[in-house]
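Would you mind giving me a polypeptide sequence along with per-residue C-alpha cells?
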Amino acid sequence: MKKILFALVAIFTLGISNAAADNDKLVNKSELPVQAQKFIDDNFAGIKLTYAKLERDFLDRSYEVVLADGTKLEFTAKGAWKDVDCRYSEVPAAIVPKAIKDYVQQNYPGEKILKIEHENGFYELTLSNRYELTFNKDYRIVDIDN
C-alpha cells in the first residue's frame, strides 16, 4: 500500500513540475535572439510586431512572433526560423530555397507559398491551392498531400 501511495505522489509531483515548466513569457523584439531579429528585419521590414513570446516547455525553448498583418513566425531558442505562416499573403521569396521555389513554379504555376516549415532537415509547404508539399534536405519532393 505504501508503494502505491508513494508512486501516486511521485506521479502527481512530476505532473505539477511539468505544468510549472510549461509557461510562456511575453518579450520585446529586442529580447529575441539576434538571428531572429535579423530575419524579421530582412524579410518583414515595415510590418509591425504585434507580440512575441518565449515558450518554455520542459526541455525546450522557442519563440513565437505574430506580426500585424497576421503572419506567424516560430524560431528556435538560438533564433533559427522553424515556421513562417503568412495567412493572408505569400511567404517572402528569400526564405524559400531556390530548388524548392523552382519546383513549385514549374509544377504549380500561379500558386503562392502561404506557409513553410523547416525542421529536422525537411521543408513542408502549404500552397494557395491548399496542397501540402514535403521536401527532404536535398530539396527533393517526398510527399504531396491535397
